[in-house]
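Researcher: We're teaching a course module on how sequence relates to structure. For the next exercise, students receive a sequence and then see the predicted structure as tokens, so they can try to spot secondary structure elements on their own. Here is the exercise chain.
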Amino acid sequence: MILVTGGAGYIGAVTVRELLDKGFAVRVLDKFLYGDAPLDDVRTRIDCISGDLCRLDEAVLDGVDVVIHLGGLSNDPTAEFNPEANRRLNTDATRTLAEACKRRGIKRFIFSSSCAVYDRGMMAEDVIQDEDAAVEPRAAYATSKHAAERALLALTDKDFQPTIFRQGTVYGWSPRMRYDLVVNTFVRCAFESGRLTVHCGGEMWRPLVDVTDVAKCYLACIQADLKDVGGQIFNLAYKNFRILELAHWVKKALDGIVPVEIEVEYGSNTARDYRVSTKKLERVLGFRPRVSVEESARHMARKIQAGIHADFHNPRYYNIQWLELLVEIEQHLKRLGSIF
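Model: And here is the predicted structure for the students to work with:
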């Protein structure tokens, strides 16, 4: 049995399907903050549990052999919205879950971290960073992920062998769609306005990877010899791109589907900017992401043309907008007392 925390999320919903396709038994633990609809077509094939990682019921680990830990807040805006909740979810809950796994003898633990831990801003030295590079994360999200990494590595021994994937910015279509990720945002903007706006001259670097490749990498890790991947950190990315380059790839992908113009703005140099090496991933795990930006953007476009996730103003597709709305509703209901 494989437990996927955050299994109804953007990466989780794709990962669950990849696992099922390979014949694995899957249990999902999710608070379903964004709803459970992304699992509708596989619900009868999984063990689905609604729960809060900050109030972990260890019974969710009964019969589990592998944990893929994707639950938590997943980008800078949501982390900055409530830094304390970000710390509890991304760092403290990760440590608590890992400790419970160790007590129960669950050795395989895959953790979804972020290449954002490498970010030092556009004024920093432009170097390609590998897993041994010194990191000094600045933002709340990256800081919480790095702290979780340290907690996992501190627990590592012969009885607990976590694998940490520092993922690039993810792109691609998912049953729990997001339009607040750079490639996905470009595709949405192309359909809405026919214009892709690139800030800071588009000079900043970012490692990126398709969501399906992320899920397939987890599968490769599960099937790998634990002595090779246990206690290890891997950078997971398809390629390093400049943001302006990304815009041109999306424009090319949408040729013949929707007309696109690229608008470049200059000014601030405070954007995130970093490049990473994925040589260790290829050497040790033998895995290399395959889904290009062009292929992924075209796939998204076809889905949108079919009317799937085409309601761009739905706040569920934007993590911070949805959280802000839920908090506003929660506060309103507290003042209201009851509806009837």
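Model: If you want an answer key for the exercise: DSSP finds eleven helices and 14 strands in the chain. The chain has a mean pLDDT of 92.
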